[in-house]
Amino acid sequence: MPRNVLRRARQYHLGELSEDGAGRDPIQLFLRWFAEAKKARFLEPEAFALATASREGRPSVRFVLLKHCDERGFGFFTHYGSRKGRELAENPWGALAVHWDKLERQVRIEGRVELASSAESDEYFRSRLLVSRLGTWASRQSSVLRGRAVLERRLENARRRFLDEDVPRPPNWGGYRLVPERIEFWQGRANRLHDRLLFTRRARGGWKRQRLSP
């Protein structure tokens, strides 16, 4: 049998996830884990893989930066005309996943994705650095470029266009919110007997909590 060069014997030992420790509210548990990830000095603890699918069910995945989380859901921002934006217009369901390896933790989130309000998108856009706001005008996300020079020229055009005024939010850019129906928390444990707790939203409100086999 050929040797598997990717194989690595690793033991997980940093923590546990009990029902008492998790509580009944997955949003509060997520916020607690996210705070601990920030404290652990990850480079980008807010970087999540976002999976979407076309109308035909063909999946795609990429990383996005999570910008807010509350009882309403998990928010991120992008161009409406990007591949993910087009797919969400056709099929408004998505999934988020994060792996905080230094804490031996994963979180998986699934649900329907809706557009954030114009006011929410405007507020966040105003908070961005000037170079980021100008870059949003320069990029036609996911479209084919003839070369890097085209992008640089668009950025310079945006600088000249908004030289003496505030940079407004482009009409093709804004926020999305994934409204969770399922949230799963994974904590690595010894002997691959990992802790997995799944929270499923109840139709009448609240959450159902179940332990899954590793």
Structural class: alpha+beta
Using the 3D structure, state the CATH architecture. Answer: Roll
From the 3D structure, determine the CATH topology: Pnp Oxidase, Chain A
Shape: globular
How large a portion of the residues is in β-strands, by DSSP E? 25-35%
Please state the oligomeric state of the protein chains shown: single chain
- What proportion of the residues is helical, as a percent range? 25-40%
Number of separate structural domains: 1
Number of separate helices: 6
Q: Going by CATH, what is the homologous superfamily?
A: Electron Transport, Fmn-binding Protein, Chain A
Q: Can you characterise this structure?
A:
The protein is α+β, with helices and mostly antiparallel strands and 214 residues long. 28% of the residues lie in helices and 33% in strands. A hairpin with a 5-residue loop joins strand 1 and strand 2. The mean pLDDT is 95.
Describe this protein with a few key phrases.
single chain, 214 residues, alpha+beta, Pnp Oxidase, Chain A, nine-stranded antiparallel β-sheet, 6 helices, 9 strands, 33% strand, globular
